Amino acid sequence: xxxxxxxxxxxxxxxxxxxxxxxxxxxxxxxxxxxxxxxxxxxxxxxxxxxxxxxxxxxxxxxxxxxxxxxxxxxxxxxxxxxxxxxxxxxxxxxxxxxxxxxxxxxxxxxxxxxxxxxxxxxxxxxxxxxxxxxxxxxxxxxxxxxxxxxxxxxx
Amino acid sequence: xxxxxxxxxxxxxxxxxxxxxxxxxxxxxxxxxxxxxxxxxxxxxxxxxxxxxxxxxxxxxxxxxxxxxxxxxxxxxxxxxxxxxxxxxxxxxxxxxxxxxxxxxxxxxxxxxxxxxxxxxxxxxxxxxxxxxxxxxxxxxxxxxxxxxxxxxxxxxxxxxxxxxxxxxxxxxxxxxxxxxxxxxxxxxxxxxxxxxxxxxxxxxxxxxxxxxxxxxxxxxxxxxxxxxxxxxxxxxxxxxxxxxxxxxxxxxxxxxxxxxxxxxxxxxxxxxxxxxxxxxxxxxxxxxxxxxxxxxxxxxxxxxxxxxxxxxxxxxxxxxxxxxxxxxxxxxxxxxxxxxxxxxxxxxxxxxxxxxxxxxxxxxxxxxxxxxxxxxxxxxxxxxxxxxxxxxxxxxxxxxxxxxxxxxxxxxxxxxxxxxxxxxxxxxxxxxxxxxxxxxxxxxxxxxxxxxxxxxxxxxxxxxxxxxxxxxxxxxxxxxxxxxxxxxxxxxxxxxxxxxxxxxxxxxxxxxxxx
Lengths: 156, 516
Known about the structure:
The complex is a heterodimer of chains A (156) and B (516). Chain A has one domain (10-153). Helix content of chain A is 4%, strand content 51%. Chain A is built from 1 helix and 9 strands. Chain A has one helix at 10-16; strands at residues 19-22, 30-35, 41-51, 57-69, 77-87, 95-104, 113-123, 128-135, 149-153. In chain A, strands 1-9-8-6-5 form a 5-stranded mixed sheet. A 4-stranded antiparallel sheet of chain A has the order 2-3-4-7, with no helix packed on it. In chain A, a hairpin with a 5-residue loop joins strand 3 and strand 4 (57-69). The longest helix of chain A has 7 residues, at 10-16. The mean pLDDT of chain A is 79. Among the domains of chain B are: 1-144, Alpha Horseshoe (Serine Threonine Protein Phosphatase 5, Tetratricopeptide repeat); 422-512, CATH 2.40.50.1020. The termini of chain B are far apart. Chain B is rod-shaped and about 150 Å long. Chain B is 65% helix and 10% strand. By secondary structure, chain B is α+β, with helices and mostly antiparallel strands. Chain B contains 20 helices and 10 strands. Chains A and B meet through strand 5, strand 6 and strand 7 of A and helix 16 of B.
């Protein structure tokens, strides 16, 4: 990457700035994705559970939580309703994480949604994860728009 | 007998994808299983002179076994086009199929073939072939869904033909595919074609597939096709990917893969399954599936499919960060792609040559036709022009004839009054006398200003007989015009112009006699 690069816009942030995902044993919630479209914004957090045989990470469970911010009066709060993880072969992205959200009348407490995988899902060191967050039943826009890249790494 | 023949023709010429009933498949599969043309002939119990039917069998057999129809066979088939209505309908349908099936498809020509067949069968009120042709047109639009209005027209038309259970299946099938084509929302730029649907659309189409599976009535190829399409559809929604995998798994079981067609469908389903497995995170399984597809004995025949398998393997390996394998398959993919490009270029050049030849012929024909049409349109003008040309021609002919006549008269007059020797014009009335000096003659002629001399290289002996009788030889070297003689003496004459010309003893008598 260009060393002199300074992010100026949201799309710069989404396409060029990598966040890192810590895949370790017994980790707590960590920031996965920022959604800053429009006046209402939220941050998506996740607690990732899995095991680490050898050098790979076998994903077993993700617990999702949305933290809403800047909610105007009368506007709904959002929470995660469904999630799916899928491998892809697009340039620069290895894993797609699809997250469906739904509006709520009031603020939710506790974990929004627990995504438990029937079979373990392999995530390698250095895999790039791309999050696709979208409201249930709403179409339009581009789910695969600006990729928000999240690199999987291991911290001891 | 006639009904029997028609039945056989329908059976044989039914394309395997669009054949109306699964029984046809079964009969054809059983007897083509061993790839033995003889067994197929025996099945139909052909008499020796049924060449026509033989050709139709060969046509389908070629595709069934080799996956492609040879151009020679097509040419042979073409000669049968003009025999009867049924022949031409079958010919156009088969030709369209051939154009769509081969490696370098020619969609627009295939479509025009189907349209011809549709028109013919509609004129003859043949509902069987109308529905068969409509089915082919629908398949054409499934693959080229650009013109949705036209597609809708033919989808609606096929709904009118629901006599048998198979008809009902196909009518519903195309309706569902049409629904899928129209409801899909563009927007994702992914390498594989992606369709996304509104949740309502999605559930509606999903239910339609359930109905379609009921309609297929457990017939292996129809259900296989339906399950494959269902898997493709469900795979678009990541939340339904497990259902998609199980659907495609079932579809693969429908194709044992004993013939080219079955293998083709099987490989397509396997590639789809591998993609779905890969998406679901089961990378190793996906790679195994693709390798099993590659290992098939038919794989070497079909470059296009091999290309897509290599491409998939390359993408999966690169996503899996196994760079050596990824590079290996990328190389193979590029190699096959280049081979295909070479073939395609050769094909295009051949096609271009044919087109150019046709264009040349067409140009001459249209040129001639244009002349005839414009002639018809401007009869009066062209009539006048032709009349004018006729007048000019006849006038010039007359002029030529007149000139010729005048020239001849002049020539005749000239021989009487004079002549031309070596470009010197001699008028007899003006020529006084001729003197010969060595090989030359000097002609002395009367002129306005006196006497004019002309010297020509000529022999006096040859000149003498050409001159009229009043020219007499007086000497070995002189010829004298007697009209210019003033006095005749014993050894010379004195001319009116004053010259003295000698008379030799040899010519004395002949000079003085009345006749020459």
